[in-house]
TrEMBL record:
Domain (Ribosomal protein eL8/eL30/eS12/Gadd45): residue spans on this chain: 5-87
Gene3D superfamilies named among the record's database cross-references: 3.30.1330.30
Source species, domain of life: Bacteria
Pfam family name, one: Ribosomal_L7Ae
Protein's recorded name: Ribosomal L7Ae/L30e/S12e/Gadd45 family protein
């Protein structure tokens, strides 16, 4: 799935109200087990990536890289975000085929 398709899926998912946006909201949703996957921007800081990877690892939530910068994601969503949680199984299933899975340790 090219970047344009991922952007389109994110836009539709946002309009449906099925995205959790930003580090704090996504971490909360991961802990509450209301998201089916977390997507990060390619230019996320190492500290933020480590933080969200730890959270996802504890709750066994898949973590993916969108292979797009936060600015590119922001162009689709209207605001720049480096961390996005997808709260819809169908949308996550359709997007995960084209996202790069990030492996993390469950320490």
């Amino acid at each position: 799935m090219p970047k344009a398709s991922i952007k389109g899926s994110l836009t539709v998912c946002m309009r449906a109200g099925r995205l959790r946006l930003g580090m704090d909201e996504v971490k909360s949703a991961v802990r509450q087990k209301t998201v089916y996957g977390v997507i990060t921007a390619s230019d996320i800081s190492k500290k933020s990536l480590k933080e969200i990877a730890y959270c996802c690892g504890r709750e066994d939530v898949p973590l993916y890289s969108a292979q797009m910068t936060a600015d590119e994601i922001g162009a689709a969503l209207g605001k720049v975000y480096a961390v996005i949680g997808v709260a819809d199984r169908g949308f996550m299933g359709s997007m995960e085929k084209s996202l790069e899975k990030i492996n993390y340790s469950k320490e």
